[in-house]
Amino acid sequence: MGQMMWRILRIYLPALMIVACLGSGAAADQNDQRLPPLFAELKARISLAQAKLLEAQIWSIWGNHGREDVERLMQRGIQAMGSGQLVNAIDLFQEIIRIDPDYAEAWNKLATVRYMLGEFEQSVEDVDRTLDLEPRHFGALAGLGMNFEALGNAKAAINAYRRALEVNPYLFSVRKRLKVLEDGLPEDAT
Fold it and tell me: What is the predicted pLDDT for the residue at 146?
């Protein structure tokens, strides 16, 4: 695997595995009423441990569809991602999207796999769909920045990373990438 692919796995796989292991509850997704207060708290001055707990809660809600068949497909897709079976993961996430085209997390996972395969422009399209459904999706915003970096568009990457940090200021790897990119651009370019 390439260095960027390992980086994305290292950043997102722990959260993906938390979501996969949390089990089903009541139907939830990007429209869940528990999300607004979690996002508000995430913007407050809290400890890193509290921020990580809030992130895990948000990922859990995003990942919990409420339909058992969709959740089984999601778990299988996440497992396929983790084991490098990326084409199989794409098929599984596309099947979820056929079942529920308004499920933001399925679009986000599809975008992640396409990024891992180097299909950056398709990944950007899937991220855009994710953000249409869930504009606060800090994972998708970070992924958008990574896609733009891979496509050589530092200015767009900077904008995406800034948006991610507005939603979740505790994304330290995003903050680090943002600084690297900002330090590399002429002053009038940002």
Answer: 98
Asked, for residue 29, whether it belongs to a domain, the answer is no
Contact 86, 116 (CB under 8 A): yes
Query: Is residue 30 situated within a structural domain?
Result: no
User: Which residue, 68, 118, 120, 122, is CA-closest to 94?
Assistant: 122
Phi, psi of 75 (to 5 degrees): -60, -40
Residue 84 covered by a domain: yes
Whole-angstrom distance, CA of residue 164 vs CA of residue 178: 10
Q: What CATH number is associated with residue 121? A: 1.25.40.10
CB 170, CB 48: distance < 8 Å: yes
Task: Tell me the mean pLDDT in the region 39-46.
Answer: 91
- Residue 163 CA: distances (Å) to CA of 88, 121, 158: 31, 19, 9
At 49, list the tokens: 């441990």
Task: Quote the CA–CA distance of 91 and 177 in Å, as a whole number.
Answer: 31
pLDDT tens for 78-96 read 999 999 999 999 999 999 9
Please give the tally of structural domains in the chain.
1
